[in-house]
């Protein structure tokens, strides 16, 4: 597992790039099956493609945040020598306090966490959607306050 | 499947191309009064496997830019390197190697994705085109 801030930021960026590639493939495939639904095989229906296309960005935001959270847990374990808090909110606040991360950057990371939670747990009052490039930007900004290596 | 010597030659050619690019940009950046630091990044390639390659950090005041190798090949190109505004990792420009030289694809600020940059009007990579991009990045970052 990397112990370099920069490698973790690259991993977050790599998820965004995968999303771009998958979005490109998905758009291409969706257009093809709409032109000719007979291309759809197995138990799949046209609706499955529409759903997949609609939820693609959210799926990648969940992965993006997973990389970010794994980084923070790895940093806490190695740099602080103890188990990280189980609640992700506490993890973000705790790392933020120890690294003196500006409050606006911590708040920005929390907005991504809250949006991720709404995607995973279907919140009653979902927060404003966040695009994947905004999510990547906010999480990389937060990570930039970690030490270069640990 | 390529023989090991072919793979070694592919990797050497790509790394030499990257090294030449980074030395050139480093020289121009210093002349344009940017500070630079060369770093090493881990890459993975379906043919070359895992390997280390050089990357370059550029900084002027609070503006930080990363020149990061992406791929040794892409449709119509024999090498892709991206320029990012750090620490947000925002896409700013892409460099493509074709026709024996590097070309810069730069769109700001309307382009929203890396994919859109592929359609940007390319310019040959020169000290002048690099300066335009760096100046644009500075304006965009403010």
Total strands of chain A: the figure is: 0
Specify the overall morphology of chain A.
elongated
* Class inferred from helices and paired strands of chain A: mainly alpha
Radius of gyration from the alpha-carbon trace of chain A, in angstroms? 18 Å
Average pLDDT across residues of chain A?
A: 93
Q: How would you describe the oligomerization state of the chains in this entry?
A: heterodimer
Q: Topology of this protein?
A:
The complex is a heterodimer of chains A (150) and B (142).
Chain A: H1 5-35, H2 46-80, H3 88-98, H4 103-121, H5 132-143
Chain B: H1 4-31, E1 35-45, E2 49-60, E3 63-71, E4 80-86, E5 90-98, E6 101-106, H2 114-117, E7 122-124, H3 127-141
Antiparallel strand pairs in B: 1-2, 2-3, 3-4, 4-5, 5-6, 6-7
Summarize the structure in words.
The complex is a heterodimer of chains A (150) and B (142). Chain A has helices at 5-35, 46-80, 88-98, 103-121, 132-143. Chain A has 150 residues and is mostly helical. Chain A has one domain (5-143). In chain A, helix 1 (5-35) packs antiparallel against helix 5 (132-143), helix 2 (46-80) packs parallel to helix 5 and helix 4 (103-121) crosses helix 5. Chain A is elongated and about 55 Å long. The model of chain A has no long low-confidence stretch (mean pLDDT 93). Chain B is an alpha+beta fold and 142 residues long. Chain B has one domain (4-141). Chain B has a 7-stranded antiparallel beta sheet with strand order 1-2-3-4-5-6-7, with helices on one face. In chain B, a hairpin with a 2-residue loop joins strand 2 (49-60) and strand 3 (63-71). The termini of chain B are far apart. The A-B interface holds A 6-7, 9-10, 12-13, 17, 20, 24, 133, 136-138, 140-141, 143-144 and B 39, 41-42, 68, 84, 86-91, 112-115.
